[in-house]
Design the sequence.
């Protein structure tokens, strides 16, 4: 857990010479779990003016504090920012995350809420890692989304799990690797109520036409960049791909954020009204930087246990239960 007043932007704050406010609220998803949310908006909005909104979708072990840097990028352009703790993360209800499968329904609840807000015009999505997968899954079902930024998505969870065996040099005999992965599949189905085989994200790409900006760190060994390459190649909508130095959890370079800002400005077309925007944007502590993808790490630990004794259900189940499923 975390203290929102310590890790989020203040309820009232100044950024680039303008005043903004943080509106905290609670929503419920289709599983009747409480979602803790924050909406960052200008303190004063001209009458009869609706602003576009970007929903930030955090990674597996993240929370809405991960959106702190996104506020710096978007708010000066008259784009509001909505951040949430997915179920099983942060301060929201729920015990487990599902790497995008159930989070898609959380995102649906947020979009439905914003659609009813007369001060919100069009909606964009910005997702990182699990959040990028969530955005892709939801975007395939809602073509009205104006644009998506997709940072470090995996293309297929089953294939990713097989890759992690090699990346982390898990000492499982090759002939037992698939057996161990399928064992973990059963554990995850039982605990988190989703099937890893359903997270074949690349299959949704040819059905999605929302303009998208893809990003991936070239030295990411956790979710390797070829995952984004596959999704980008299959993606049906207008698209662009940016590779940059760094790894899975490293801070993103300024040129990437500049590209994100330009992308959202073009697809959301925010209204212009007098402002005191400055190029010298304030820097703010971002709690989300450097966090690990804990569910995937627990899958790794589970594979180790399953490889040691594929016939025993206790070791891997205990590892999975005591790890990623817990809020950070």
Sequence:
């Amino acid at each position: 857990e975390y203290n929102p007043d310590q890790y989020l932007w203040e309820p009232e704050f100044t950024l680039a010479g303008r005043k903004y406010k943080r509106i905290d609220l609670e929503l419920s998803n289709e599983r009747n779990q409480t979602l803790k949310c924050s909406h960052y908006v200008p303190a004063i909005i001209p009458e009869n003016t609706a602003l576009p909104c970007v929903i930030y979708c955090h990674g597996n072990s993240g929370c809405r504090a991960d959106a702190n840097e996104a506020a710096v990028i978007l708010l000066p352009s008259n784009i509001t920012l909505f951040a949430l703790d997915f179920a099983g993360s942060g301060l929201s209800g729920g015990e487990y995350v599902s790497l995008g499968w159930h989070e898609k329904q959380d995102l649906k609840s947020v979009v439905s809420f914003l659609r009813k807000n007369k001060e919100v015009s069009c909606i964009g999505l910005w997702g990182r890692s699990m959040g990028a997968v969530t955005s892709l899954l939801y975007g395939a079902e809602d073509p009205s989304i104006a644009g998506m930024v997709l940072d470090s998505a995996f293309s297929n969870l089953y294939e990713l799990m097989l890759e992690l065996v090699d990346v982390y040099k898990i000492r499982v005999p090759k002939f037992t690797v698939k057996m161990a992965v399928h064992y973990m599949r059963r554990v995850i189905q039982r605990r988190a109520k989703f099937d890893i085989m359903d997270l074949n994200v690349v299959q949704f790409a040819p059905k999605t036409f929302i303009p998208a900006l893809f990003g991936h760190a070239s030295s990411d060994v956790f979710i390797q960049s070829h995952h984004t390459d596959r999704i980008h190649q299959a993606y049906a909508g207008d698209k662009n791909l940016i590779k940059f130095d760094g790894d899975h959890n490293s801070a993103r370079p300024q040129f990437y954020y500049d590209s994100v800002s330009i992308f959202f400005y073009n697809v959301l077309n925010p209204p212009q009204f007098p402002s005191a925007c400055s190029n010298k944007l304030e820097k703010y502590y971002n709690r989300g930087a450097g966090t690990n993808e804990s569910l995937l790490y627990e899958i790794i630990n589970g594979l180790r246990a399953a490889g040691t004794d594929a016939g025993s259900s206790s070791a891997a189940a205990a590892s999975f239960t005591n790890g990623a499923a817990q809020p950070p």
Summary: The chain has two domains: 4-156+200-289, 157-198+293-328. The first helix runs from residue 4 to 7.
